[in-house]
């Protein structure tokens, strides 16, 4: 479930970095040539953040800034903070903020989700979002390449990521997570210690196929009943790259309301 983006022409890059266009060309993103690169999950997470002007969005594990830059393009006048432990990824995120003209809106901090939110000394945000690593146990999958290991393996477990998000969001604020569909019960259980008012949107590769991803919204202190939203179907059998609905989201013409 990745979105391939062609390198922009006429841009000089070093041997380790490639430049891609995201959100229908509204975002320019420097990413590693090898290793993890932002794709479909980042685009859907960004589309799910309906932050208002003046609100702050905190991302745990921001990588090169694929989510933050797309939120910045979609949501003018928001303030964005990314936490990233990989120095190269954090540097790329800072470069991407400046490259797109949002150096005054996007702040990237060096930090480790496993160490928790409170040591960062930040005020709690209106939104806390993440695409956490998908696996807690390296024995559960073929070992990833060293360049992708940090994006695939949650060394401190999914619980540490959820705790970071719920510590980092205000009372009444929103948390949004995109993750594997088979971890939905774990996500709801962990978020439920502090959050409620859940909205869950399945993401299906085809209409007849089971969901592989879920987008989970929660409100800190919320008490409304859980809502199961209509699934987003990414592909059909027409030969087009994406369904019309998915295409409007990926190009920034529409969002994913909760």
Describe this protein's structure.
With 258 residues, the chain is of the alpha/beta class. It contains 7 helices and 11 strands. Strands 3, 4, 5, 6, 7, 8, 9, 10 and 11 form a 9-stranded mixed beta sheet that branches. Helix 5 crosses helix 6. It is globular, with a radius of gyration of 17 Å.
Round the Cα radius of gyration to an integer and report it: 17 Å
Intertermini distance = 21 Å
For the sheet with most strands, the description reads: 9 strands, mixed
- Apparent shape: globular
Number of strands: 11
- How many helices? The count is 7
Per DSSP, what share of the residues sits in E-state strands of 2 or more residues?
A: 25-35%
Point out poorly predicted stretches: 1-12, 140-145, 147-154
Q: Mean of the pLDDT scores? A: 89
Order of helices and strands: EEHEHEHEEHHEHEEEEH
- Going by helix content, strand content and strand pairing, the class is alpha/beta
Q: Please bin the fraction of helical residues.
A: 10-25%
Topology, pairings included?
Layout: E1 17-22, E2 27-32, H1 40-47, E3 56-60, H2 66-74, E4 79-84, H3 87-99, E5 106-110, E6 125-130, H4 149-152, H5 157-168, E7 169-180, H6 184-191, E8 195-204, E9 213-220, E10 227-228, E11 232-233, H7 244-250
Parallel strand pairs: 3-4, 3-6, 4-5, 6-7, 8-10, 8-11
Antiparallel strand pairs: 1-2, 7-9, 8-9
